[in-house]
Structures are given as structure tokens and as C-alpha cells.
Amino acid sequence: MTVLQSLQIALHALRLNPLRSFLTILGIVIGVASIVTVFAIGAGAQVRLQEQIRSIGANVLMITPGAIHKGGIRLKEGTKLTMTESDVQAVLEQIPEVQAAAGSIAGTAQVIHENKNWNTTINGTTTAHFTVRDWQLASGRFFSSNEEAGAGKVVILGSTVAQELFAPGDDPIGAQIRIMNVPLEVVGVLDHKGPAQDDVVFVPLTTAKLRFLGSTSGINRDSIAYILAKAGSDDQLTGAKAEIEGLLRQRHRIVSGQEDDFKVQDPAAAMEAQQGAVRTVALLLVAIASVSLLVGGISIMNVMIVSVTERTREIGIRRAIGGRMRDIRLQFLCEALVLCLIGGTIGIVGGITLSMTVARMAGWITVINPEAIALAVAFSVGIGLVFGFYPAHKASKLSPIEALKTE
Amino acid sequence: MTAPLLRLRSVYRTYRTDGLAVTAVRDVSFDIQSGEALAVMGPSGSGKSTLMNMIGLLDLPTEGSIYLQGANMADVTEDRRSQLRARSIGFVFQSYNLLARHNAIENVALPLVYCGVGRKERTLRAERSLESVGMLHRARHFPRQLSGGEQQRIAIARALIAAPLIVLADEPTGALDSRTGAEIVTLLCSLNATGQTVVLITHDAGVAAQCRRTIRLHDGQVVSDERQIPALRNRAVAL
User: Number of structural domains, chain A?
Assistant: First the structure.
């Protein structure tokens, strides 16, 4: 008897008891669906992280104000932004490893073009910001030095914002948009950097302070929210970090033993660490899903054992009319296998559906990769074989004479 | 002289249950020639079923030998014996033993599945086999939709499909009323008339009388092995 014939017999047998077959495979369905979903979300998270790392740019250090929420009295002090534009200058001029540095302040606001509007991040910065992040223009130009110095009413759009405000084929360059009732001329549109990064508009730092963010946040004229600094190469990062820390401690008059009022971070390293954490969580979820698969396998074994007992007479008949032991074993193994494959298929479809739903509802990126599907299929087949073997073996070992005597 | 179809030589079969040895068949020797119609008779407990299991290659003697076409069955593997059952033995059981979840034609074709015959040819041969027992019009019926007599005819069609050396019928009329039973016996006899070797196991003397040769068992031993003179048999049918 061929495997194909065994599969046909198996399908025939399973069709006769659809509810039981379905309940049997439920564990496998849930297990496989969980694995597919976890893998999709995990892969999505990795893609997102990699994109973020890439979007920050290579060899970039991020300098932010220090822990501002530690203890009652300092909370008040901490709300004041400790970084200033002169810090940016100092970092750029006094630290040889730093090739470029830019200070930024940011907030959110509604941007309006004609009858369209969009809520996005307003980032006030200098042209150096784009150098640090290796961010190219898709069209137009960066800010001129006049505009940077004189709070020019100009704006550079992230590609998402350009897409939202302008019809396709409509050139945004030269167009007027409004932010908080201030009309601004679009001078540039940026290249794609990733979905999370493209949803932004840039204005000169001076413009942001004078016209938008400065007035709302009440910060001092010279202060900025964070500094991005670019080192010449990857191995200079650690040295540059230490030097920046030294310089800023000196500039902020922080004596030894006193806590820094700023923090120098290597975002790429931080994100890689985060990526590791994501991987750990994903592994944990896979472990849980595996338990479900194990339970599913046990339930298949259980039902197959019951099935063998119920069909003892059938086994006897099949043996009497010429079925070999291996034919009987193959038949029941195929049944278990078919159960698992059907469960696996439903699970894969369910998992894809679930991860797409999650993606839509939570706004996460999910990536269905073929490896995860292949793994799920391999798991289903493996479980079918492992948990189907004992019942099938038991069936094949039945004495045909005894089997024919049962009712 | 060619070897007989089936040869039993000093066959013993002993069962051991709870340390107690029961010999169901003792020192049985006889030959079955091709084309014979043989009835094995005896009261219940006389070892008929045990003997049938051995003739049907489902079981092996504890002592003595069974030869199928000269080959000692003790020397062949269980797998090979399974294949021989598929190709050389056609079982007909008292309780029909059709697979309830398969229709008539699927049941009839089943032995061919184990002979490795393709689906198309299986269906073709199953139809022919069903036709030969007059059951082609019931091909798509399931066993539960058929009467006992019809089910037994389906079972005979299944026994015949692989063109076996021996059709082995174990109390084929036991579950049937006398008229239907007689029809089944007539069917088996007509098979024998075409040259098919038939071994009939029964406790019914009327059924056994339809066969040219009758072996009587008692307490696991052969007590008589009689052949009817053909003329006498014809007269009996005429009466």
C-alpha cells in the first residue's frame, strides 16, 4: 500500500467524524497559530528596530538632558532643559572625533496645506542634523545660513507628510503650508528613511524657538532638547562619548561625585540591547506556544489510541484480507499526520490572520516570513509522527485473530 | 506429481492461557487439491476455527507444518503471509465483516489495495466481481443499507476479487435464514463448479452435504474424511 492510498484512507476516516477531528486538532491549531503570530510580531519588531537604528544614522551619539524626575526638589530644576546651543558648538569644536553636531527641539502640531491637514512632529534643528543622520533630500534644498540665523519661514517635509499634504504629482517645493497659523515655504522634501521617521517636518531651530515651540514650552532661549553628534567612525564612538561627558561636566560645572545633568547615549547600542530583549520575549512566547503544541500532540495521541480501540475489528478485517503490519501502521500514522497537517494549515492561516489583525489594530509591523511557516509545518508533521507512532504501532501489533473476535 | 494446493502435516495448535495449555487441534493431516470443495464439520469447540485460522494463514501451528503450494508457511515472514492472504486466500466470514464506513464496491476492492493495484483497475475488477455475485446494482450501497444475504454476497465478491487459490468460508450461512443461507451455499457451489477451490467450515450437515468432501473434527482431531461419489451427489440434488 502506498502513502497516497494511506492518506486517502486517512482522509476518509477523518471525514466520518468531523467534530471529533476538529476538536482533536484544536491544540495544534492554537499552537501553530501562536508560533506563526509570535514569529510575525517578533520579525516585525526586529525590522522596526533595524529601521530605527538605520534611521538614526551611523556612529551617532545622542545627548539628552539627564534624569529629570529624581526626587522632589530637583524635579523642578530638571524640567529646565540643561542643554544649550553653545554646548553644541563646544562639542563640535573641542572634540576632534565629532564631525558634525546638531541641536534639536521638538513638539507636535497640525500642519495645513490648502484643504488638507496632518498632525506631525515639528523638529527645529540645523542643517547639520541631516549630515549627522546621513539623510538626503528627495528634492529641493536644505536651510540656508540666512534662514537659520534669521528664523526664516521655511520648512523641509518628511516624505510621509509630503504624501499626506500634497496630491501625487503635485510638487511641494515652493508651496505654502501653515503651522500654528504661521505660513511657511516648503524648500525641501526628504528621502524615505522608514515609516516611523518620515512622519516629521523640519524647521530651522531659530524658527522653531521664535515662532512655535519656544513660546509654548517656556524654555530659555538658548536651550535645546537634545544634541545629535556624529563620530568619524564606529571605534571612535566610545572615546567621543567619554570626551563629550567630560566636556559637558566641565561646562555645566558638575563637580566630581555630583550627578550628571545630561546623558550621552549610543542609540544603536541601546537598540541592539533592546533587540536582544525582544528576542528573549519572543523565545518565551514560542516556548509557551510549544507547550500548546505538545498538549495538541498528546490529544492527538489520545484520540488515535481511542480510534485504534474502536476500530480493532476493522484492523482485524484489514489484516485478514492481506494488510501487512506496516500497512496498518502507515494507515494510522497517516491519520495522525493528516490531522496535524490540517491543524497546522488552519493554524498558519489563523496565525497570519491574527498577526495582520494585530498589525492593523496596534499599528505594529508584522513580517510573515517563509521560515516561520516552514517551521510550523515541520512542527505539525513532527508532532503527527511522534504522537501518531505509538497508536499506529499498537494497531499494527494487534493479532488479527483476536481483532476479528472483538465486537 | 505436483504438490497439493494446501498440505497439513501432523498439525497441532496449543494455546496457553494462565499457564493452562489447551490443544485445540491435534495431529491433523490432510491435503486440499486444486478445484476441491471441502467442508470441515464439527460441533463447536472441535477446533474448526483454529483450523480455519491456520488454513487462512492467520495463524501458525505450534507443531507440524502447513504447506501452501509446497512452501512451508512457518518459513515465510509475517509480511509475506499477509501478502499471500491478499492474493491467495479469500475469506468469507459468518458476520460478513464488511467495513461499515465503506460502500460495497470499496469493500470489494479492498484486498487489491494491499496487492498494490491502482485505483482504476481496482474499480474495474471490483465491478466484475460484484457482477459475478449479482450485486453490481448495490455497488454504491453501504453495508447497513443491505440485507444479510446481500452483505454476504458482497463479502464473497471481496473474497473472489484477487482470484484466490482458496475461498475460505467460515460458517457463511450462520447468520442467515435458511433460504438465504441456501442461496449463499448455492453461490459457493457454483463457484466451485467453475474450478474455484472452496473450503467451507460449518456445523450444518445440510450445508456440508453440498460439498464433495467432508472432514469431520472432534476434539481437535479428524474423525472422518469422506468423499461423495459424484453420482450420489447428483441424485441428492435431484431429490
Answer: 2
Query: B123: distance to nearest CA of chain A, Å?
Result: 14
Measured in angstroms, the CA of A316 and the nearest CA of chain B are apart by 9
β-bridge mates for residue B71, sequence order: B68
Range of the domain at A244: 67-260
- Rounded Cα gap, residues A321 and A315, in angstroms: 10
Task: Give, as one character, the DSSP assignment of residue A210.
Answer: I
Residues in B touching A324 (Cβ below 8 Å) = 78-79, 82-83, 114
**Could you tell me the CA-to-CA distances from B157 to A83, B128, B175 in Å, in that order?**
96, 9, 18
State whether A369 and A227 are in the same domain: no
pLDDT digits (tens, 9 = 90+) for A325-334: 999 999 999 9
The verdict on residue A62 lying in a domain is no
Query: 3-state DSSP helix/strand/coil percent for chain B, to nearest 5?
Result: 40, 30, 35
Domain annotation covers residue A60: no
| Cβ neighbours of residue A10 closer than 8 Å, sequence gap 6 or more | A331, A334, A335, A337, A338
Residue A137: exposure state from Cβ atoms within 10 A (0-12, 13-18, ≥19): middle
CB contact under 8 A, A322 and B56: no
Q: What angle do CA A104, A110, A111 make, to 5 degrees?
A: 85
Which of A260, A288, A308 is where one domain is finished? A260
Rounded CA-CA distance A363/A360 in Å is 5
Which residue in chain B has the smallest CA separation from A17? B101
Same domain, A253 and A388: no
Are A186 and A174 spatial neighbours (Cβ–Cβ below 8 Å)? yes
* Superfamily in which the B6-238 domain is placed by CATH: P-loop containing nucleotide triphosphate hydrolases (3.40.50.300)
Same domain, yes or no: A21 and A131: no
Q: Is the pTM of this model over 0.90?
A: no
Q: From its phi and psi, is residue B45 left (phi > 0), alpha (psi between -120 and 50) or beta? A: left
Closest chain B residue to the Cα of A400, Cα to Cα? B58
With an 8 Å Cβ cutoff, are A326 and B79 in contact? yes
Per-residue pLDDT tens over the stretch A75-112: 444 445 678 888 888 888 998 888 899 998 888 889 99
| pLDDT at res. B230 | 59
Question: Both A251 and A208 in a single domain?
Answer: yes
Whether A81 and A219 have beta carbons less than 8 Å apart is answered as yes
Residue ranges of chain B with per-residue pLDDT less than 50 = 235-239
| Same domain for A72 and A47 | no
Strand partners for B170: B201
Contact B82 A5 (CB under 8 A): no
A227-262 confidence digits (pLDDT tens): 999 988 878 888 888 889 889 888 888 888 777 788
Burial of B144 (C-beta count, 10 Å sphere; 0-12/13-18/19+): exposed
Task: Decide if B76 contacts B125 (C-beta within 8 A).
Answer: no
Say whether both A285 and A322 belong to one domain: yes
Shortest Cα distance from A399 to chain B (angstroms)? 9
Residue A267 forms part of a structural domain: no
- Integer Cα distance of A72 and A79 in angstroms: 12
Distances (CA, A) of A160 to A47, A201, B77, B151, B188: 19, 9, 75, 75, 86
Tell if the CB–CB gap between B56 and A404 is shorter than 8 Å.
Answer: no
Same domain, A167 and A192: yes
